[in-house]
């Protein structure tokens, strides 16, 4: 067990690195301290989701510099840390990358030490190493570079008392990594070549490394400034100079992801958005979660009566489930009735698709019927081969489910009981989410109700004009058309995998 594990303690200031941008590159320690701190003073260059895990009652204050109106001066920031710690708060001072690599963390620590305030230094993954890695550039390499230098590019090369020794840097036997240098790139390249650095040495400039907006420009030292300016590269960007850059040809990986730089809206209910969102992120997408629908289990007379009948046993010959949610709500109802899966002993079970079957599996049940095509029609087709005459069939469905399945089963002669086991309701979206949706590349729809709820939450369907609308299947596409929207693509397989494939294909 590490000595530094545990929650943030009162009166202590933690100088924490938040990594280069990819939320997955935050350390366990950083996440733990963010989750428990009383106050968080954060910089501009931290991952967008870095503060998501903070306590609801935590004090969150922007304490950064840079192109923002509320820019703070260094002494002010240090004073604020001292003040909060003296109030007995646990304070996280959150900075991009590593707090001690061009991060002024040492100055802040020195102020705390002088004020007699306890502090901890929590290193982070620094951009110089991480952005390079995500560009397929190793900062050291057995064949190319036995050393690496981290250099600030912000020094004005014209300044007479510049602290950069250009002659020494040019002669440095290894990789040069410049932070903050994009604006100065013409001068940096000129100074280095003037002092004897090879004009044809390969250089990579990496913008917003490790994020969905990562872009890399590679050129020889003599040409890099012009190429970067042509490409419109903007800070934050990192410049890596050295033969290690050639490795990118072989091991470039991150920028090859099919959805890199594309924003994709995920509209599934909050509980289900996780997997779809995580998978899209792995493909490089920037995911906007718009859980426009929420499912609320029902606990009314009909549900209670059904649960009692099931617990009694033998009440139904066949039970049909049309969503994973339905399965979960069904078992919650059984539990409330003091029963469990044994109530379904001897009962056949049908699931509308793979996800629903998986949910049943989590309750220890194997579905007897799972259609290839995950729609009510597909399930009905499959069940049509069964002799259902006079069979007691329960359909545990969403209150707004289409009548296709229940009507069809009745036509097959079954005695059908339809029980609405949950409601789906529209969730209001924060303004920032609405704005992000209006500018997104893709909007995914995993059900007809997610179409209706998203439109209700947005207020008008027009906000989706110009977005590529990706539908999970024909029923969802129909719901889009009913709302006056034409789907841009429809999944070939009507499940999450099919939906993801359709987004990737549309991204071309
Ligand atoms: N403490 C930070 C660096 C702060 S200085 C760290 O350890 O990473 C800010 C500079 O870091 C930026 O101007 C840029 O050069 C670099 N930088 C930070 N994040 C970056 C990113 N995601 N991609 C490329 N460069 C980045």
Mind sketching the topology for me?
Blueprint: E1 13-17, H1 28-36, E2 39-42, E3 59-62, H2 74-86, E4 91-95, H3 105-114, E5 119-122, H4 127-134, E6 148-152, H5 166-171, E7 175-179, H6 185-194, E8 202-207, E9 215-220, H7 224-231, E10 237-241, H8 248-251, E11 263-266, H9 270-282, E12 286-289, E13 293-297, H10 301-312, E14 318-321, H11 324-336, E15 348-351, H12 354-362, H13 376-383, E16 392-398, H14 404-411, E17 415-426, H15 431-438, E18 442-445, H16 448-458, E19 468-471, H17 474-482, E20 489-490, H18 496-507
Parallel strand pairs: 1-4, 1-5, 2-3, 2-4, 6-7, 11-12, 11-18, 14-15, 14-16, 16-17, 18-19, 19-20
Antiparallel strand pairs: 7-10, 8-9, 8-10, 13-17
Helix pairs in contact: 10-11, 11-12, 13-14, 16-17
This protein binds S-adenosyl-L-homocysteine.
S-adenosyl-L-homocysteine (SAH) binds next to helix 4 and strand 10.
Explain what the structure shows.
This protein has 508 residues and is α/β, with parallel strands linked by helices. It has four domains: 12-125, 3-Layer(aba) Sandwich (Cobalt-precorrin-4 Transmethylase, domain 1), CATH 3.40.1010.10; 129-256, Methyltransferase, Cobalt-precorrin-4 Transmethylase, Domain 2; 263-292 and 427-507, Rossmann fold, CATH 3.40.50; 313-332 and 340-422, Rossmann fold, CATH 3.40.50.10090. It is 34% helix and 19% strand. It is built from 18 helices and 20 strands. It has helices spanning 28-36, 74-86, 105-114, 127-134, 166-171, 185-194, 224-231, 248-251, 270-282, 301-312, 324-336, 354-362, 376-383, 404-411, 431-438, 448-458, 474-482, 496-507, and strands at 13-17, 39-42, 59-62, 91-95, 119-122, 148-152, 175-179, 202-207, 215-220, 237-241, 263-266, 286-289, 293-297, 318-321, 348-351, 392-398, 415-426, 442-445, 468-471, 489-490. The protein has a five-stranded parallel sheet with strand order 3-2-4-1-5, with helices on both faces. A five-stranded mixed sheet has the order 6-7-10-8-9, sandwiched between helices. Strand 16 (392-398), helix 14 and strand 17 (415-426) form a beta-alpha-beta unit. The longest helix is centred in the first third of the chain and has 13 residues, at 74-86. It starts with 12 loop residues before the first strand and ends with a helix. Bound molecules: S-adenosyl-L-homocysteine. S-adenosyl-L-homocysteine is lined by residues 20-21, 45, 95-98, 101-103, 126-127, 131, 179-180, 206, 208-210, 235-238.
């Amino acid at each position: 067990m590490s000595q530094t594990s545990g929650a943030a303690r009162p009166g202590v200031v933690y100088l924490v690195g938040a990594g280069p941008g990819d939320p997955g590159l935050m350390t366990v320690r950083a996440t733990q301290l963010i989750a428990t701190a009383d106050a968080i003073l954060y910089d501009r260059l931290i991952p967008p989701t870095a503060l998501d895990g903070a306590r609801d009652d935590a004090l969150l204050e922007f304490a950064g510099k840079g192109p923002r109106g509320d820019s703070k001066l260094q002494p002010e920031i240090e004073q604020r840390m001292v003040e909060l710690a003296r109030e007995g708060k646990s304070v996280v001072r959150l900075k991009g990358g590593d707090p001690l690599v061009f991060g002024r963390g040492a100055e802040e620590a020195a102020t705390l030490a002088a004020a007699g305030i306890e502090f901890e230094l929590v290193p982070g993954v620094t951009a110089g190493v991480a952005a390079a890695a995500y560009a397929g550039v190793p900062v050291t390499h057995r064949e190319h570079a036995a050393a690496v230098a981290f250099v600030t590019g912000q020094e004005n090369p014209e300044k007479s008392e510049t602290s950069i020794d250009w002659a020494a840097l040019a002669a440095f036997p290894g990789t040069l990594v410049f932070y903050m240098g994009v604006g100065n790139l013409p001068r940096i390249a000129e100074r280095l070549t003037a002092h004897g650095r090879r004009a044809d040495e390969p250089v990579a400039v990496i913008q917003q490394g490790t994020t969905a907006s990562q872009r890399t420009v590679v050129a020889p030292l003599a040409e890099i400034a012009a190429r970067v300016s042509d490409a419109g590269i903007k800070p934050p960007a990192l410049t890596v100079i050295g033969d290690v850059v050639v490795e990118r040809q072989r091991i470039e990986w991150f920028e090859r992801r099919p959805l890199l730089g594309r924003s994709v809206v995920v509209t599934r209910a909050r509980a289900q958005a996780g997997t779809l969102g995580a998978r899209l992120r792995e493909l490089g997408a920037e995911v906007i979660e718009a859980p426009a629908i929420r499912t609320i289990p029902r606990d009314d007379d009909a549900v209670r009566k059904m649960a009692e009948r099931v617990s009694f046993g033998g009440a139904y010959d066949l039970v049909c489930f049309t969503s994973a949610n339905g399965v979960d709500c069904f078992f919650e109802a059984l539990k409330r009735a003091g029963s469990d899966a044994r109530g379904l002993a001897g009962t056949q079970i049908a699931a509308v698709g793979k996800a629903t079957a998986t949910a049943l599996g989590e309750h220890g049940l194997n579905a007897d019927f799972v259609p290839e095509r995950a729609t009510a029609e597909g399930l009905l087709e499959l069940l049509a081969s069964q002799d259902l005459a006079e069979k007691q069939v329960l359909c545990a469905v969403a209150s707004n489910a289409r009548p296709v399945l229940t009507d069809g089963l009745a036509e097959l002669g079954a005695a059908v009981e339809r029980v609405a086991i949950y409601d789906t309701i529209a969730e209001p979206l924060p303004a920032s989410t609405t704005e992000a949706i209006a500018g997104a590349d893709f909007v995914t729809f995993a059900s007809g109700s997610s179409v209706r709820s998203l439109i209700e939450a947005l207020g008008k369907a027009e906000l989706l004009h110009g977005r590529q609308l990706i539908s999970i299947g024909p029923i969802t596409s129909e719901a889009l058309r009913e709302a006056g929207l034409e789907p841009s693509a429809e999944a070939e397989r009507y499940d999450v995998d099919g939906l993801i494939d359709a987004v990737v294909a549309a991204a071309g």
